[in-house]
Amino acid sequence: MKQFFKFFFASLLGSVAALFMFFFLSFIILMGMVALLDSDDVVTISSNTILELEFKSAIPERSHFDDINFSSFLSGKIGKKLGLNDIISNIKKAKDDSNITTLYLKLDDLNVGGYATLEPIRNALVDFKESGKPIIAHGNYISQPAYYLASVADTIYLTPTGGIDFQGLSAELMFFKKTLDKLEIEAQIIKVGKFKSAVEPFIVEEMSKENREQVSAFMNSINNHLLQEISEARNIDEDELINISNNMLVQSPTDAIKYRLVDKLNYEVEVIEQLKTLTGREKLKTISLKKYNKVAGASQAATSNRIAIIYAVGEIAGGKGGTSEIGKDNIVDAIRKARKNENVKGIVMRVNSPGGSALISDIIWKEVELAKAEKPFVVSYGRYAASGGYYISCGADKIISEPITLTGSIGVFAIIPNMQKFFDNKLGITFDGVKTGKYSDFITASRPLTSNERAILQKQVDRVYKTFVNYVVAGRGMTFDEVHKIGQGRIWSGLQALEIGLVDEIGGLEYAVESVKELAEIEDYKIVEYPEIKEPFEEILETLLEDISSKIFSPEIDNIFEHYSKALKMVKSREVQARLPFEIEIN
User: Fold this and answer.
1) pTM of the full predicted structure?
2) In 137, 244, 285, 557, which residue has its Cα 20 to 30 A from 268's Cα atom?
3) In whole angstroms, what is the distance from residue 21 CA to residue 15 CA?
4) Mean per-residue pLDDT for 299-305?
């Protein structure tokens, strides 16, 4: 027996040592990979180079290192992910770069994360065309978002046996009512406004009349904008495009030629030969956007003036936040740093958020008010600026929105699950206890709300809503009744929001920066970004030390579980919420 334990513990010690060495060596390899991928070495290019643009994954608002997880480690895909900020700046750089003669759009599997992200990229391409340099686009299969981007190209090629989508937009919402019924869980809802449809997935099986009304209006606003832009770019009458879309007339590549949506049917290998002729090269010289990011651009003017861009991205929650979550710490600290920095002459807050915690939204709103009192403060909207996203920005000197931004949703709600029957009938669990006061166990999921408790919650929700509306009244120069009429949780597109006074102008981030420049009355400036992006080594160390289980060993979660987890987070929250009515994907 003594020998058994001797060998057992020796084997155990060896296994632990081996495991430690594995992670140590993995860490060293990881560091080396990051150092290699994050090299700041300047890249040089020769004349007659083609810049390739290909977008196959969702684009963040600004460049940062990908999250470190097990799959990225094994695949070697660890490095800096280009954000919208650097994509736009590189297209602008290419416009003035004499070595870049052509821009080549590769349209297959395009996925940028929504039309609102696509819009500023497309606008940058429109600006690029002013250089006189051609834009060539090719796809084996061209999706509707890909076609919207490609419509600015001088020539659009489609594979002869490929396909193209052009049949209008659709949005599908997910409802959990039947699931909750099967589990015998009641979603107890306290809300303000007939349009606050964030709660609908938990209490109904289909869209309400009010929800259908707002989503239809929102979708039609976006669709009309897309068709207008395509009409102008392709010189096709808008009514003709509506007819093509509504009747799905383009069902084959030859149809796409017939209705002038594309120019030529060619395989990519044939397009490559034409690009060689265009650039006068026997061997095509191309550079990816990621590599072109390391090509030196024009030097900035020497000035101490700074314009701060604060990236408020993701759901609004407590804690420190991160690159994809607005926390109390990261955004509040960012606004304070920009306010206290004497070289910062003005601030742009880039908001891309569906909202979240009403309390944290209010704390951020206060910081915006303090900063606005000292410096020009302009807000730029990305894909979302809804509910809490609108709350934190409604007091700005100016709000500039993308036409396709989903904004508004001025409303609040609370969801309290009653799981008494679920615990009793499904799990056989019952609860009993003692309390020192009438409301000592307020709030609990083990029993339904009493009428008094429901009344208390309704007062809290009403109070937060009234505060929200009053902030909009003060920030937008409207009356309470005017805001309430367009509030009540209703969503609007950026174009609709302009018509009803929720935003001031339509434009992108660069336009917002120029607006701050004018308000600050400065000529030259440099950009400083907040919150600061962590160095890769710091990011990796934090990942390994603080969140190994969730960052390295957690499995990839597909789309349906992403919706489920967000819904679960809403139900579990004890806070009053000011967030987007639902998760909406436009197809």
Assistant:
1) 0.85
2) 244
3) 10
4) 84
